[in-house]
Specification:
Low-confidence stretches: 1-5
Strand content: under 5%
Radius of gyration: 22 Å
Shape: globular
Order of helices and strands: HHHHHHHHHHHHHHHHHHHH
Structural class: mainly alpha
Mean pLDDT: 76
Helix content: over 70%
Number of strands: 0
Length: 485
């Protein structure tokens, strides 16, 4: 095992770059994994796979229990302290894992007794999902040690392991059972790899930890709001699918999830920025002014990624839907909207997620960890209510509007609680106007896409895109000015 002699300090721009490019590669490989499943299952079976996977990921998220965020809040900057914190949190997570594995599995044996075809996939997916969240503590450990590049590599290998295992399952026979076993195997390989890489980065002769022994009760108490949040964040998007399957059936879930896969790929971008920001926030968590200064400094990279992401998403989706996805999942005869139209209707969700990503992440450093959970819990409530109101009337379109509204509410509340809107009011107003204008443009564009040619859409909407980009031009120039100086 090779040890380093020094520890690198986290850096927002550098680590954002590593995580961004790592997540781009992950997104591309993730698209391949999605295509492997989509093209080897019929539309109904794929809908069942989506619901089963989302349900087990939701339950498996309890294993994480907000421990990575708690590690950041307790860490004193020393390698030994980090190891102690991670090992302590892992013990708690393993106990939660046991409870999640034993109790729900026994419950599902009785609940799904008459649905044996669901039972075995459920168990393997639940085990795999739990391992997926268990490795999160080691990933945050690498990031805090300034090794975002190692974390990016682990994310990349995670997808490679998944592809190899899925190919093996498809070779044997692409059933729900075989695919779930493949998922379970790949997640276990990823866990042991990231654990090995974390301990390989340890620094010999590091000074003793200054952190006193922490009680399990205090860690659980501090982590609980983050545990709720971890459950809530993925539910923004999943709740739409659960309500869709109730009102519209598995076919609607399959069609919506194909568009959601594209947006989820895009959501890796704000996730990358948030991932790098949390390590930087950890170094200035005692100062609200410094935290808000990081929010201000992040405007350049956020704005640059926005202007690149919106047209890229539309162009890539158009090509992908034409050549990669099954016809019945991108051009549905049963529903009015599908394919590229749904992606365009979902794009405002991505825009609001980008605009508020750093503000939201900064709330993890607040004295009360509930400050981070509150906006997300409220947003989930809005998401659920809006979905129940809109989906029965507007089916797939209702689901996209509900999701966009949820991310918009999250942006507003995060800006308010972080108080960034006070300190940098002009930046907040620019973001707000930019997001609202682009959302309106995209909703009109989505409505026109079935009645106008792509050439007409390009001529009509490109000038509107460029005019709206002017709003965030000062923020884009800021990142270049800062790099020069």
């Amino acid at each position: 095992m090779v040890f380093r002699n020094t520890m690198r300090a986290p850096n927002l721009n550098r680590d954002s770059t590593y995580l961004f490019f790592g997540n781009v590669a992950v997104a591309l490989l993730g698209l391949i994994t999605g295509l492997l499943v989509i093209n080897n299952l019929d539309i109904i079976s794929y809908g069942k796979w989506v619901i089963l996977l989302d349900a087990t990921l939701t339950l498996g998220s309890f294993v994480d229990f907000g421990m990575p965020n708690t590690i950041v809040r307790y860490w004193d900057g020393k390698s030994n302290s980090l190891t102690y914190l991670i090992e302590t949190c892992q013990k708690i997570q393993r106990k939660i894992l046991f409870l999640i594995m034993v109790i729900p599995c026994f419950m599902m044996v009785f609940i799904l007794n008459n649905y044996a075809s669901y039972l075995i996939p459920w168990i393997f997916l639940l085990f795999g999902s739990s391992m997926n969240y268990l490795l999160g503590s080691y990933r945050i450990g690498l990031r805090l040690m300034g090794e975002a590049r190692e974390e990016s590599l682990s994310l990349l290998l995670d997808r490679i392991f998944m592809i190899i295992c899925l190919l093996g399952a498809i070779y044997v026979g692409p059933s729900l059972i075989n695919l779930s076993i493949a998922y379970f195997i790949s997640m276990n390989i990823s866990f042991f790899y990231i654990r090995w890489r974390f301990f390989s980065q340890q620094i010999p002769h590091e000074p003793s930890s200054n952190i006193a022994e922490i009680s399990t009760r205090s860690i659980i108490y501090d982590a609980f709001p983050f545990a709720l949040t971890l459950l809530v964040i993925p539910m923004i998007g999943r709740i739409d699918k659960f309500i869709l399957v109730y009102f519209e059936g598995y076919e609607a879930v399959s069609i919506f999830n194909v568009a959601w896969l594209v947006i989820m790929t895009g959501l890796l971008v704000p996730i990358s920025v948030r991932q790098s920001a949390i390590a930087v926030f950890g170094g200035v968590k005692s100062s609200k002014i410094n935290i808000n200064r990081i929010i201000y400094d992040s405007r350049g990279i956020v704005s640059t990624l926005l202007i690149m992401g919106i047209p890229s998403c539309i162009i890539i989706s158009q090509v992908a839907f034409a050549y990669l996805f099954p016809e019945d999942m991108v051009n549905s005869k049963k529903f009015e909207y599908s394919g590229i139209t749904l992606v365009i209707f979902l794009l405002p969700s991505w825009i609001w997620a980008m605009l508020g990503c750093v503000e939201l992440e900064s709330l993890k450093m607040h004295n009360s960890s509930w400050k981070f959970s509150a906006p997300l819990l409220f947003s989930l409530l809005i998401n659920t209510l809006a979905s129940f109101l809109l989906i029965p009337r507007y089916d797939l379109l209702g689901a996209t509007i509900s999701t966009g509204l949820t991310f918009f509410i999250t942006f507003l509340i995060s800006s308010y609680i972080s108080e960034s809107y006070k300190l940098y009011f002009s930046l907040f107003i620019r973001k707000l106007i930019f997001g609202i204008l682009f959302s309106i443009i995209l909703y009109f564009m989505g409505g026109d896409i079935n009645i106008k040619s792509y050439e007409e859409l390009f001529i009509m909407y490109t000038p509107l895109f460029l005019i709206t980009y002017i709003l965030i031009l000062p923020d884009i120039l800021y990142i270049f000015k800062k790099n020069i100086t």
